[in-house]
Amino acid sequence: MRRPHIRTVAVAVAVTTAATGLAGTAFAGPSTGVERTSASAATTSTVVVEAARTAAFAHTAATGVSQGDDLQAQDVMIDPDGSRHVRFVRTHNGLPVLGGDLVVHLNRQLAYTGVTRAAGHAVKTSAAQAKLTAGQAAAKAAQAAKGDAGEAELVVDARDGSSALAYQVTVTDKGTSSTVVIDAVTGKVRSNTPDADQFLSPKLVDTLRKRGETIDPATGIGSDASAGLLGSSATGATSYPSTAHGTGKTLFVGNVGLTTTATSRGHYQLKDPTRYGTETRDAKGKYTESFGAGTKFTNTTNVWGNNKTTSRASAAADAQYGVTKTLDFYKKTFNRKGIANNSKAARAMVHWGNKVANAFWDPTCNCMLYGDGDGTMFKKPLVVLDVTGHELTHGVVEATAKLEPTFVDSDGNQYGEPGSLNESLADIFGSNVEFYANNTKDTPDYLIGEKLGLDQKFLRRLDHPSLDKLEGTIDYWSPDTYYTEVHAGSGVSSHAYYLLAEGSGKKTINGVNYNSPTYDGSTVKGIGRTKATAIFYRALTRYMVSTTDFHQARIATLKAAKDLYGATSTEYKTVDKAWAAVNVTAANTPSGVRH
């Protein structure tokens, strides 16, 4: 799903100001306040990080921080009311700790108010020394993931309620990679996790193949009236590069305006200088995780594509449009500046690999990778808008809670509630990207993959997830959810979100009919999509960590609703009702789950 390891212990702190993310008047809630200058933000960051680190060691019973631990700040979030939240990763005796992440919460006066933590125990390795050498661990990892192993790094694996000395190894094969964790004492494979999240799971691909069903999205030829054509012009600046306005003739959303770069008079590049230099390139069939290895899209017309696959630029226009709309959604809605909130470009490569029937967010490349399809079961590139919104949201999760699957089978299918929650958030915010774009060629809805040409007319849906028979998506939580493939398990929290936003029962939105059931037969009255989305985003960025399960997600969203609207508010009460309606309650919380 993602690369779960700590890439480095010398991590730059990303300061998030106005971070309840209620930009402007898009969401009802507290105002964002005034954004600080970079110098002011950096000073504030240093003070807040030190206060949070001190608080973590002063409240060890709650935080789980112990002797030998060191905390490295990943993110500093400052709310309009002055509250602070610092997300940390951890080392123990100099070794990176898997599952050791935590968020320390402070008030305006920098006093400790609480913690959200992944490891429910102190991180302590046994006295046993490594019995495997790094080379032996790398060899075992290569065998497990069937690829070429990189250097083995000693870590502490604090996941699954214990602490063990282990080696972590990146294994690559055909331009993709997996992270394998090998027990340094026993040699057992503790985990083998794909670093990239593929939109279509191996299980789904196998199901489609057995059914003889194809994915063949309908093209959206013609102009998108809501966007209009901006023409092919530069700003009139005499110096280059400069901002230009061109037209994307996409495969799926018609003709759309694209902001591009004029590199010289009459020469253009598919790169958006108004969005941090966000760019789409052509992988030209290579299996590469290096964006620099992609070929730039350039031309002399500032018109990109021809609405058909006969032009390599058509898929690029879809990708660039989807990426920029996703960036705009996060910026306008949450004041989030880029996928990692660091004001850096989002990137995409189309025509990736040879007949690759998938699309995915790649954390190694920090970009979207789109295959062209295999030409038989998958007819076209998966550059559909909600696919891009879904996959880029995995990048947002990677930059925040880092939700991980609990285990992965030999075919690469992922399981466990944190992974299911990751997929759910990608569907939730992916559908919100559609609502934000409001493109007439891709009507906003609570359906995922509705343009893929599937017989059931969608891949997943948020209102009644079990109507998805391809993946066997579930409506409600049960103890068996732990063993459910993550795309199927995503239905639990996606359903809770829909009930929070739109309520139970029948409803028609933008011509699509919905009928959302509840586990307990209750009636839920929704609070609206904007408020529901604000609550889920705040829960993700403030109160979720790598191991958050559905019961902890319920607590996270309740805390977020309390922060935004108050503990006695209708919004807070509806969050509780929505989770109860999918059978996630305080009463049925499994033993061992932290509140």
Automatic annotation (TrEMBL):
The FTP domain covers 69-109
Write down the top EC class of this protein: hydrolase
Its EC number is 3.4.24.-
Query: What are its cofactors?
Result: Zn(2+)
**Which UniProt keyword terms apply here?**
Cell projection, Cilium, Flagellum, Hydrolase, Metal-binding, Metalloprotease, Protease, Secreted, Signal, Zinc, Zymogen
Q: GO MF annotations for this entry?
A: metal ion binding; metalloendopeptidase activity
Question: Would you tell me the protein name for this molecule?
Answer: Neutral metalloproteinase
Write down the species: Streptomyces diastatochromogenes
